[in-house]
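For reproducibility, we list the full input for the 5-amino-5-deoxy-1-O-phosphono-D-mannitol complex.
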Amino acid sequence: MCGIVCYVGNKDVKPILLEGLKRLEYRGYDSAGLAIQDGEEIKWHRAVGKIVELESKVNGLEMKGTVGIAHTRWATHGEPSEDNAHPQRDRDENVFVIHNGIIENYHVLKRKLEREGPRFRSETDTEVLAHLIALNFDGSLSDAVRKTMSQVEGTFGLGVIHRQTPGEIVVARRGSPLIIGVSDNGHFVASDVAAMVRYTNKVVHLEENEVATVTADDFSISTAQAKHIERSTETVEWRAEDAELNGFPHFMLKEIYEQPMTIRNAIRGRLEPGEGVPKLGGIMPVWDKLKECRHITLVACGTSYYAASVGKYIFEKLTEIAVEVGLASEFRYRKLNFPPNTFIVAISQSGETADTLAAIREAKRKGASLIGIINVVGSSISRETDAGIYNHAGPEIGVASTKNFTSQLTTLTLLALLLGRHQNLSLTEGVQAIRALEALPGLIEKVLAQANHIEAIAEKYYKYGNWLFLGRKYNYPIALEGALKLKEVSYIHAEGYAAGEMKHGPIALINPEMPTVAIIPQDEMHEKMFSNIHEIKSRKGPVIAIATEGDDKVREVVDEMIELPPVLDFLNPVLAVVACQLLAYYCANFLNRDIDKPRNLAKSVTVE
Ligand code: M6R
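The corresponding predicted structure, in tokenized form, follows.
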């Protein structure tokens, strides 16, 4: 989705903005632009397409200055075009605005403004902001922004400069994240820490409805009512090299290979093998309530929703708690009736997904307690939940979520284990689960060691246009996730199904042109899955099995087999999904797709 990067300091701003925009590319965008204060002038340029298009436009141009704002746009109002790209400006070209989010009452405001004078040059909702700020300006840019905030409805992260207030950038936030970066050479503002991590890891998060005036030497935060706020800096874990490929051809592949390390990070310091109980400091603020809780609803979107769906089975295995899973995009519109002491667990890599954020706000309004399972530290969901567990997967740059998914499964297991041990789960079972979690990174390495074999399977099948993914119980959501991964990065049509549903419809699709990926580890569902494989084979459908190593019974009937080392049944999904991720990656690679930035997708969906 859209990205913001701003800088004011003692360095030449143009290369800093271009570099920052490149770091935001992974979020998905269709056009970009920047505005630089150059003495008394503001110089600005925009371009459709990749950042290199913008770069080639501005390279060689005289754009001196140490104050600037820049933006990547993901079209919502108006097609991707130069006119619709940001910055947007007012009629007299005094005010330049970059904006993430959506102004919901822009139609009304636009009609009113057009009657009063300004002619609009774009189809965007953002242009309304530029005109309003110009009209509200009376010497103080932050006052003009504050007044404008009171006139608009919707969501925004804003960066604004004004010709008459050189040396300052005013930023504001409602529903769209903004972070101020503090360095010895000036200040940054960005929607994502990735844009500034090369220069600083000291940050200050802007909260809802706050405005900040940022200069080279200082920043000052205030509320929408102009009340001053003191806030100290935090240090973020990100390192500049996290956003580098380090020899891998794509971030997706790099992140798939990072999974042994990221799982180690997710469990580090959290396991107490002797007692068979994990230690989760982040949920201690709600522990007294949580330990009595009998109803949990897991809410999330996309891949995080599939992690939640595996989590439901894990909770049912390890605890006595009734667990429901909800798609955040639907959940937010339901009539929610919670039993007393219900916990909502929001699961999100970015912590900024608009639907998930709206779902927890609605749940809170209805009296539920909130826990976040989040990757991005300091993100909106992590701040709005009562307690939480961080995944510690590190920055995930590939748009297709991989390493974060397996970390989510790990943290969900830790939470279920903690609650289960507090209920009826025995010490022996607790210890067994902890030992299995400790062994997981080594087992993932065994799956990764089959990458060449999986690549060869992909080479054989990547031209098939329709795929089916089947699994049962813990691996039913993995079938959904496997299909999602394949369609996201390769654009191959794929469907995920609970294998028991085969006979209720999807079996009609089976023919020699439709490969099925069957997830069949040696668990209690093995025989049932085996019958499904037979049904497919008797209709001449090719089958790629993801099965437990040494399962010759499966090997004899299927066309291809990827082997998983044996593990506790509820941890099989962690291994099976790695095989699915590699299969999707290699198919996409054979098809020459833009793997890290698939068409039409954004890393973090911050609008509805
Ligand atoms: O940041 P979140 O985990 O809340 O994001 C949820 C989904 O948008 C995300 O998982 C999406 O489905 C990815 N493209 C999956 O690869």
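The first strand starts at residue 3 and ends at 9. Residues 427-448 form the longest helix (22 residues). Both points were considered when choosing residues for closer inspection.
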